[in-house]
Amino acid sequence: MIRNRCERFLAAGFALLAGALPAAAAPASVGESIYLHGVLGSGEPLAGVRPAGGVTVKGAQAACVNCHQRSGLGTSEGYNNTNTVPPITGLYLYHARGATTDEPILPYLEWMHGNRDPYTDATLARAIREGLDSRGKPLTYLKPHIKLGDADMSALIEYLKQLGTRPPPGVTDSELHFATIITPDADSAKRGAMLDVMQHYFAEKNRFPIGNSKQMRTSGKTEYAKSMFMSHRLWKLHVWELTGPDSSWQAELEQHFAQEPVLAVLSGLGGANWAPIERFCEKEQLPCLFPNVEVPVDNSRDFYSLYFSRGVVLEADLIARAIGQSAQHAAATVVQVYRMGDSGEAAASALASTLKGRGVVVRNLALPARGQAWEVPESLRGASGADPLVLWLRADDLSALGGAQSAAATVYVSGTMAGLEHAALPDAWRSRVEMAYPVDLPEPRALRLRYPLSWFSIQHIPVVDEPVQADTYLACGLLAETLSHMADNFSQPLLVELLQSSIERRLINTGYYPRLALGWNQHFASKGGYIVNFADPGGTRLAADSDWTVP
User: Fold this and answer.
1) What is the pTM of this model?
2) CA torsion sign, 305 to 311 to 317 to 321?
3) Average pLDDT over residues 528-551
4) Which of 79, 281, 491, 520 is the most exposed place for a label (fewest CB within 10 A)?
5) In this predicted structure, what is the pLDDT of residue 545?
6) Residue 132 carries which DSSP code?
7) Which domain holds residue 425?
8) pLDDT score of 386
């Protein structure tokens, strides 16, 4: 509920959450600093008092973004949008409500207020300081009375006036442009599989524009009726293939974006380093939605990047939790084997950091980035005394284990890197292997995969990599459904905010994940996983060691 959320943000207990606020290194203006971070031009914290109960809020607790969101467009929750936070960008605040106004038509929002007088600078300052609307009526008791001097007030009002005035890139009267980004180290088979799904999805979207063009409900706000029409626009896909070393990706992306402006980055495919793409998207305020990457960037300061899962870093947390719960590993020496430059290197680093913090001895055996499979069994000679042994390896390396033996009673492997239940593990190893498994178990997820797999069949799309193709299809569906609720309002931060606030209520199936949920400033929609073992050493049937776990 909006009421509960704002109460949580504005109450003193919000201090526990304030550290999660996205914080720019150098705010562009005093107004932005006040709005996003609750910091005045003097560097002092913003302060305010909520009338009901006299609760004092300061700094990040008082920042406008807590309720009105980064876009300034507010939000709604509850049945029939009964709980709303209205937009406070200048375009909405200063807009006259007359049906014959010559002002630009407002982009439609289901929760916008059209039954009040437009604000002026003076009445807006009064609303911020005294909690009175443009007609002098009290605003909700959740609205704190903010203490602002004239200079800071002027800076905040100017920021609200310009907030949301940047035209969204990649939007024309007839088209919506999107990009998908592929890094040079991305797997070529996965590349083709992902693009096959995207190209067919875009083609079908443009052939059958059902849901793309509709008259939105007016809810009695007849003066805004024209703003509620959602016109059909063709979807255009641009494939940005990066070619050079990662140090050149920023320049390559800037060139692509200049030549092909896009509204958002959709799906995509990366290797072990996605950080340059995330930095670019944050810099350009470009939504980057659900890329297929094994090592997502986990940065609480970022806003525009969303992922389905934390990938191998989540697996590291699952393994750390399993080791911590095992009495036999209390005084263990953990040995990790991985190839340098691959996703396992980041996972091994995360696991080592966690275990060393608990006093567990960790030894890392790093194999050459482009070595030979025979190096894997050879490396086990250096794993003497290991229990458990952790293998961050791919199918070719795992299959090379053969009959090589390890003294470790327990062997953990990465499900993401190994191929989940289809891992190419020799039979001699399967009875001892515990696999980190960051998706739903095969049997329950099979029901949810029926629809995308049927769609692949109808579209004559070969299933080359089921997880990548299912995630890509899911990403496309979530984008389509979210845009249908945005009408013709193509605010990029609003796109992210709607996904964060309502992804768990979307009608689209969740594919490989039992549940998707995002909250304010959250970036990972699926947050847990399993540790599983092979119930049948010669087959793919799995048994979970415990229930779904969120480490």
Assistant:
1) 0.89
2) positive
3) 92
4) 79
5) 93
6) B
7) 312-437+530-544
8) 75
CATH code for position 457: 3.40.50.2300
Burial class (CB in 10 A: 0-12, 13-18, 19+), 373: middle
Query: Which structure tokens are listed for 164?
Result: 């949301």
Asked whether 538 and 524 are in contact (CB, 8 A), the reply is: no
Same domain flag for 215 and 120:
no
Asked whether residue 550 is assigned to any structural domain, the reply reads no
Residues 115 and 61 in one domain: yes
Evaluate whether residue 467 is within a structural domain: yes
- Inside any domain, residue 520: no
Are the C-beta atoms of residues 272 and 282 closer than 8 Å to each other? Answer: no
Examine residue 129 and state whether it is found in any structural domain, yes or no.
Answer: yes
Among 521, 416, 544, 520, residue whose Cα is nearest residue 468: 416
Task: Based on the fold, state whether residues 106 and 226 are members of the same structural domain.
Answer: no
- How far is CA 188 from each of CA 9, 50, 191, 477, rounded to the nearest angstrom? 46, 56, 5, 24
Q: Between the CA of residue 137 and those of 76, 130, 383, 386, 416, what are the distances in Å?
A: 21, 10, 73, 70, 57
**Residue in the block written with tokens 């605010």:** 491
Structure token pair of residue 32: 């932005």
pLDDT mean across residues, the chain: 86
Task: Identify whether residues 302 and 318 lie together within a single domain.
Answer: no
Residue 2 has pLDDT above 60, yes or no: no
444 CB neighbour count, 10 Å cutoff: 9
Query: Which of 162, 192, 208 is the C-terminal boundary of a domain?
Result: 162
* 311: its two tokens: 């990938």
Reply yes or no on whether the pLDDT at 305 is more than 70.
Answer: yes
Residue 205 in contact with residue 235, Cβ under 8 Å? yes
144 plus 192 within the same structural domain: no
Distance CA 6, CA 9 (A): 5
Could you tell me the CA-to-CA distances from 226 to 45, 91, 167, 195, 518 in Å, in that order?
42, 16, 20, 37, 32
For 404, other C-beta atoms within 10 Å of its C-beta total 15
Pair 180, 118 in one domain: no
Burial code (b: 16+ CB inside 10 Å, e: under 16) for 209-243 equals eeebeeebeeeebebbbebbebeebebbbbbbebe
pLDDT at position 406 is 66
Q: What's the total number of domains in the chain?
A: 3
Question: Which of 128, 162, 196 lies at the terminal end of a domain, its last residue?
Answer: 162
> Residue 225 gets which letter from DSSP?
G
**What is 61-103 written as a DSSP string?**
GG-THHHHTTTS--EEESGGG-EEE---SHHHHT----TT--S
Give the mean model confidence (pLDDT) for residues 380-407: 84
- 35 and 73 share one domain: yes
The reply to whether 353 and 426 lie within a common domain is: yes
pLDDT confidence of residue 502: 86
**Percent of the chain scoring above 70 in pLDDT:** 85
Please give the Cα distance from 539 to 536 (Å, whole number): 5
